[in-house]
Amino acid sequence: MNIRATLGMAVAATCVAGAAIADSFPERPINMIAPFNAGGGTDLLLRGLAPHFEEAIGGDVFVSNMAGGSGTVAASALQGQRPDGYQLGYFSITVSTIQPQIKNVPYGVDSWTPICSVAASPTMLIVPNDSPFQTMEEAVAAIEGAPGEYVFGSSGPGAMTHLTTVAAFAGMGVLDKIRHLPFQGSGPAVKELTAGTIQFFGDTEILLSRGDFRPLMVFNDERLEGYPDTPTASEVGIEPPLNELYLWGGLFAPAGVPEETVAALAEACETAVGSDGFKEFAANSGTVINHRGPEEFDAFFRAQYEANGALIEAAGL
Amino acid sequence: MGAFTREPVLVQLGVLAIGCALYLSTLGQTFSDVGSAHSPMFFPRIVLSLWIGLAGLALVQSLRTTDGQSRPHSLLRLAILVLAVVIYSNLITTYGFFLCSVGLALVVLPIFGIRHPAIVGVYALAVPGSLVALFNHGLGMPLPTSPFTYLF
Amino acid sequence: MLSHLPDALALLFSLEGILVLIFGTILGIVLGAMPGIGSTVAVAIVLPFTLTMGQSSAILLLLAVYAGSVYGGSISAILINTPGTPQSAATCLDGYPMAQRGDAGLALGWATVASVIGGLVSAVVLVFAAPYLAAFALNFGPIETFALILLGMTCIVSVSTGSVIKGLLAGMIGIFLSTVGGDPIIGEFRFTYDIWQLYSGFNLLAVVIGVFALSEVFVRASAKPTGVSELVDFRGVILPKLSAWRGRLRNLGKSVVIGNVIGVLPGTGAATAAFISYAEGRRSSPNKEAFGTGEPDGIVSSEAANNAVTGGALVPTMALGIPGDAITAVMLATLTLHGITPGPRLVEENPTLIAAIFAGFFLINLLLLPLGLLLSRVAAPILRMREGFMMTAIVILCALGIYFVRGNPFDLIVMGVAGVVGFLLRRQGIPMAPLVIGMVLGPTLELTLRQGLILKDGNFFAFFESPIALVLAIVSLVALALPLVRAVLASRAAQ
């Protein structure tokens, strides 16, 4: 049998049943790239997901790390790979929608085939427990009363922790009256929040369980179950698009992956994210599962890309 | 003029020139205004100024001293080795860890005086081979593979 | 916490606990001793396995591999001048000359004993003083950290063998290299010239491996080939005699204290501690003239301090839930996966687990001595193989190690270029240790300087309103000025 005949049969088989190619899809190991160092939050999430993904897709899956440039190095490298579905990256809101709009990276909104979203948590504006501010109004009044006196921290310029506080103070119209002090990573920033060098910080719910902190508001469409007394950003008076902010992440492949392969990957992702094993992992690690299929995730991703433009403008990045 | 062809002087001149070039490249750039924070070039300019100053001093020192330096035993051998290592570090991601390492070993072993074909061959295959077997297939931490097969 | 010690010990002395400790320590030493492979890679290798283990085993395995690899790193640093981690770079300064002199076994003996004592003392400090030390760490804001890093920078003068000008120049090159990539305050890229591969900057390990290990290969290739020569004359670790410790105990004690204190401060790290301790040893040791030529005090200063950091770094991790360095960050993340929340209440909520970690850390340091002696006997024949085999393996292992540090292909190119440049600079007598100090301390120096300027409205002199910063600045000035004053006095006296 010559090659052409084989190809012809393969095409015919694809037309008859899309499932046939899905069965044969992972012919070799699939590589999931974490754009940060081994042992970090993103890396561990991916390592938690990989075994369930492996089981669902019926082939080998391995996690590799490519760190640097706030995640842009991995995304830049992946963008140039063959779109065969064997190379996937787990990118967060910042890597996929913020960094390409503030930095000159070789990828943009059209460089990807979104496969599925995995997790999303609303962010919060956080103060230490012994902070004098009980409400957003008190904080804003104090900042207006003493321009340049108060300081908010972040884990780095352009990071989610930075954008959250920017959304809060730009939304309240006091961003020019408060100083920004970036740190290298969350650890040192949280230490200074405890020590009192910075008065405000923005992060997800997980941080609250890790120290003596409390939230002033949450960037969600409704109040959180665990914090019924904490108002949403809209309630405090922040206008869209700055009123909702989620730290989300999902699997991306380079643009142009064949539909059948996307379908196979997406199905595996849905099964893996919905598996009991991953749910238990998520509960342990404080991950809020938020699954979206390829079409839905694509639309969400593009809408986020647009909306975050406004945020970037406000942050002056 | 003979002093300027000596290796220490050439290298020191190179270090000085690189420092100056880097400093010049900081001048034309513009960055967004960020209020109380300093320009991204604030700190590098301090460092580069010190670099240029110290490189100048070191250059003067080398011009004054004329004591000879040990020359490499064989410049050719050294040049081949340096070239091999630089090419190796550039090609690993394109042609895979295994193929590149085999090639490197075939060059480096003879340079260090190991020339027996059988020994060179076995060593060049065995060391990279066992590493690839261990990492790619044992631990699931793959090293870069070649464009020909995902196995190595 | 002490009341939970019996339960903790029961946890440790189970079959699984003991196996994890011994296996982890051995694996760590072996990986760390391989040129080019350091703690980062060693931890990355075991990380996937820890995900399926119980909580205490997972953390103990990470700790054992980490402590083992730090110790193992000193083996390759001393025997072949190739530190696997930046924190062993200070050990090369005296360890390698001593090995070249033919005392490789003894040099490793000093390193072993100093490492073990540094680790054990820090484990004890950890148990009794963690809460107080954590409170001390909270007093160290950006401005105080800036002053401490400034003090660290003065070490460049003490580790500059030969010309101080060349040492300072190497230091500046190192600091500059660390500024390439994203700006820490506003995030814009510097010196990247629109090449995205440069966005992540120059990786510290890639440069360290290049300028030490690869350039060493080039140095050896420029000598007359012997073909049959052994790399080093090494037949296993020889412990120094008790009498040889006379006059060195003060240095040992001081190094342990320096390591502990610096380890407690988040964002400084083992390399900083090793260099500061080395510089202090050189300033105060009765044998200071011999530093850099194979002086045991130099090895002791560096090794005792960098191992004491391991315990120190656990203090903010356990007491505040804030990682002290990259490895404690991995440990915290692993704890989270097992449903344990790091934070100020970590010890209260998991007393048995934390006691087991502390006790395990103590045991790991005890294990380093016998396992180090045993492994060095086993490994000695490998190290005596012909130079060519060793050099080939070094290049290949360095590439492997650097690839796994962060999976970035560009780092491999950086390593290759750093090797060539390092070789050229070394030939001109430009020392490489200051370059490493510059690269290690550069990012923190810039970040804290600019953070301080933001906090103090751009007034640099307002930094010294902080008493800690003032004291540290004065100490740095004295450290810089004293050698100069001495030199001037000496030349006057000579006239």
Automatic annotation (TrEMBL), chain A:
Sorted UniProt keywords: Signal
Entry annotated with the keyword Signal: yes
Signal sequence interval, chain numbering: 1-22
InterPro entries membership: BUG, Bug_dom1
Keyword Signal belongs to the record: yes
Family the entry assigns: Belongs to the UPF0065 (bug) family.
Database matches in PANTHER family: BLR1237 PROTEIN (PTHR42928:SF5), TRICARBOXYLATE-BINDING PROTEIN (PTHR42928)
Protein name: Exported protein
TrEMBL record, chain B:
One Pfam family in the UniProt entry: TctB
Protein name (record): DUF1468 domain-containing protein
Taxonomic placement: Bacteria, Pseudomonadati, Pseudomonadota, Alphaproteobacteria, Rhodobacterales
InterPro entries in UniProt: DUF1468
Transmembrane segments annotated in the record for this chain: 42-60, 72-89, 95-113, 120-139
Key words of the record: Membrane, Transmembrane, Transmembrane helix
Residue span, DUF1468 domain: 12-144
Entry annotated with the keyword Transmembrane helix: yes
UniProtKB/TrEMBL annotation, chain C:
Signal peptide (from-to): none
Cross-referenced InterPro entries: DUF112_TM
The keyword Transmembrane helix is assigned to this record: yes
Keywords, sorted A to Z: Membrane, Transmembrane, Transmembrane helix
Domain of life of the source: Bacteria
Domain annotation DUF112: ranges: 18-437
Keyword Lipoprotein included in the entry's annotation: no
Transmembrane segments: 20-47, 59-80, 107-134, 146-176, 196-219, 256-279, 353-376, 388-404, 469-489
PANTHER family: TRICARBOXYLIC TRANSPORT PROTEIN (PTHR35342:SF5)
Name recorded for this polypeptide: C4-dicarboxylate ABC transporter permease
Originating species: Jannaschia pagri
